[in-house]
Backbone:
């Protein structure tokens, strides 16, 4: 029969070993602190939300109807664009609206084949908060139109709307 | 330690096992912050929205293909190709065999996308 005296010493030894391992693990892991923001999950959700809102604004209500996004660009109406975009983004099913902020610019090909950017919506006076900003884009077809506001040319053209979106 | 009372060792042993079990459960909770990171990074890296948007833009262009003059067509294609390269970091090339048969090529260095589609 095996002599089972001294079991308590064995257990004490195992417990001490575990405590030492745990201490080493805690000390080594303090060099990097992992926060939920590092997982990029909110970034992914924000990017999807922004893309969906731009796609919605780029879709006419009716076949051959007016396209909201094209109208804002043609009119150079940055304020109108910001208000509708943020209204769609910040809508929640219940409770207080979300606190998203945005800035936007439009990239187009000007004279001499130069790619130029036009600031459509300037950034507001808010900090970006804990999470990083994401960039969402949407291609827009503009028809030939001589009354289009500066700086785009009057020819039919494709421009790229870029929106920077962040939660404050 | 000659006088040490060695009764109840099984109880102490079970207590130790429970403590170790709780420690591992705490480790699992600690790692739960990582859940979804790979998924989120995969979604962010794959340019799904960019490609879908590019497709719909190209289809928009071919929808109005017949209304455009030759120089307008050329300008439109040039817009998409050059702005894609400059602002989307993507090499884009597209052409049509017949007006309905459209071939699209997209490459942003990580994801390559090619398709030939019949669009009416």
Residues:
């Amino acid at each position: 029969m095996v002599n089972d005296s001294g079991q308590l010493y064995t257990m004490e030894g195992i417990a001490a070993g575990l405590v030492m391992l745990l201490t080493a693990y805690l000390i080594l892991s303090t060099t990097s602190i992992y926060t939920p923001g590092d997982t990029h999950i909110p970034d992914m959700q924000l990017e999807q939300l922004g893309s969906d809102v731009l796609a919605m604004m780029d879709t006419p209500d009716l076949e051959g109807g007016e396209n909201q996004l094209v109208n804002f660009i043609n009119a150079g109406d940055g304020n109108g664009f910001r208000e509708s975009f943020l209204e769609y983004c910040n809508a929640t099913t219940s409770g207080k609206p979300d606190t998203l902020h945005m800035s936007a610019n439009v990239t187009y090909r000007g004279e001499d084949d130069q790619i130029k950017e036009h600031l459509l919506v300037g950034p507001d006076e808010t900090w970006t908060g804990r999470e990083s900003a994401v960039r969402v884009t949407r291609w827009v077809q503009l028809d030939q139109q001589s009354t289009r506001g500066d700086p785009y040319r009057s020819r039919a053209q494709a421009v790229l709307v870029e929106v920077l979106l962040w939660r404050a | 330690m000659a006088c040490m009372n060695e009764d109840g060792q099984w109880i102490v042993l079970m207590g130790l096992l429970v403590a170790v079990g709780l420690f591992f459960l705490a480790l699992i909770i600690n790692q739960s912050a990582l859940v979804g990171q790979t998924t989120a990074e995969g979604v962010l890296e794959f340019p799904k929205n960019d490609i879908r948007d590019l497709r719909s833009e190209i289809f928009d262009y071919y929808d109005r293909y017949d209304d455009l003059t030759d120089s307008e067509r050329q300008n439109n294609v040039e817009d998409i190709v050059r702005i894609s390269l400059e602002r989307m970091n993507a090499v884009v090339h597209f052409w049509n065999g017949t007006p309905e048969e459209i071939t699209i090529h997209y490459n942003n260095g990580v994801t390559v996308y090619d398709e030939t589609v019949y669009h009416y």
